[in-house]
Design brief:
Blueprint lengths: L4 E5 L4 E3 L3 E4 L8 H11 L9 H10 L12 E4 L4 E3 L10 E3 L9 H6 L6 H11 L12 E2 L6 E2 L3 E2 H23 L8 E4 L2 E6 L2 E6 L16 H16 L3 E5 L7 E5 L2 H14 L4 E3 L6 E3 L10 H27 L1
Parallel strand pairs: 1-14
Antiparallel strand pairs: 1-6, 2-5, 3-4, 4-9, 7-8, 10-11, 11-12, 13-14, 15-16
Helix pairs in contact: 5-6, 6-7
Length: 329
């Protein structure tokens, strides 16, 4: 993993030029049955077995999602015009190298941080980075017959919240591993029949009778090793069939892995962190996470470092004045 090059499809990783909004339907002005008929006419989507087509159906029509009271909202593009991400290097019209800034290397932290945010914050993230899975089906254009205005498919806000919660839960486990938290023993549960991972109200059999040979990897009672193994499996599961290898330069023969969706980019950033390629820490100045490549780094920028310095200087000056005033009285 140390020499992995990451790229991106500029045509897929893009943001609606006119932003996104929240809607009661996945295409403004169209009901779900009409949308489903249009989608099936253009690109038949009938599989419900976990395949690519099923995933598109799941994200677009809430198939397999948790039931909630009331009608879920949708994050919908305000137009059919799109632009590439601002942090992409434009080296090619089709393929482009992903030049991530420090803050974008912690994209997974930003995404997981939405778990306790409201709908407006999630919409703000979408307006900055786009939809999670802009597959070809999202490029279908729907024209309102009355106004002539064109729309594209949106994504379920409910599904976004589930994806955010899933990643936040696993990031919390990763942070426990980093901190050597004693609470890990309540998550990584050793028992007679193997190892179970307990996150929230769900329990996953990590090691059982079918793969008992894995127990030889760790000493009995170890929590860190099984937790890391579980996290790597979770990241691998999300990245299956989402990365496309390409050799862009025949002379250097460097191989780039291109994530097909924004959600794949997010999980790839998480995998980079747990593999040790990236190191995300929270800036005490602005509270944002950033990739601290220098082990001595504490702040995301010189601006935050100076802001923190001025705050400390102001506090020290205030304490001195308070002491002098006490002496005078």
């Amino acid at each position: 993993m140390k020499d992995v090059n990451i790229g991106a499809y500029s045509s897929l990783l893009s943001v609606c030029q006119h932003g996104y909004s929240l809607s009661k339907t996945l295409v403004p002005g169209f009901d779900d049955s009409e949308v489903l008929a249009r989608v099936n006419q253009s690109q038949p989507l009938t599989s419900i077995d976990g395949s690519f087509k099923s995933e598109v159906l799941k994200t677009v029509f809430n198939i397999g999602l948790k039931k909630t009271e009331g009608k879920p909202l949708w994050i919908v593009p305000n137009s059919i015009r799109h632009r590439s991400y601002g942090f992409l290097k434009k080296s090619s019209a089709v393929l482009t190298t992903l030049g991530l800034e420090s803050s974008q290397s912690s994209l997974h932290r930003q995404f997981a941080g939405l778990v306790k945010k409201d709908d407006k914050d999630i919409l703000e993230f979408a307006n900055k980075y786009g939809l999670l899975k802009r597959q070809l089906v999202h490029d279908l254009v729907f024209r309102n017959q009355d106004t002539g205005r064109q729309f594209q498919l949106g994504e379920s806000l409910l599904w976004w919240r589930e994806e955010i919660a899933d990643l936040a839960e696993r990031l919390e486990l990763w942070d426990m591993v980093l901190a050597g938290d004693e609470e890990l023993k309540n998550v990584v549960l050793w028992h007679r029949d193997g190892i179970t991972i307990g996150l929230g109200n769900s329990y996953v059999q990590l090691v059982g009778r079918a793969n008992m040979n894995l127990l030889g990897r760790w000493h009995k009672g170890d929590t860190r090793g099984p937790a890391l193994y579980y996290l790597s499996l979770e990241a691998d599961k999300r990245l299956v069939n989402t990365l496309t290898p390409k050799m862009l330069d025949s002379q250097s023969r460097d191989i780039y892995f291109f994530p097909d969706t924004l959600l794949a980019v997010i999980w790839l950033m998480f995998l980079r962190e747990i593999s040790g390629i990236a190191r995300s820490i929270q800036c005490p100045g602005c509270g944002e996470y950033f990739d601290a490549r220098d082990p001595r780094a504490r702040f995301c920028s010189a601006r935050c470092r100076m802001r923190n310095y001025r705050k400390r200087s102001t506090r020290k000056l205030g304490k001195r004045k308070a002491i002098e005033e006490d002496k005078q009285t």
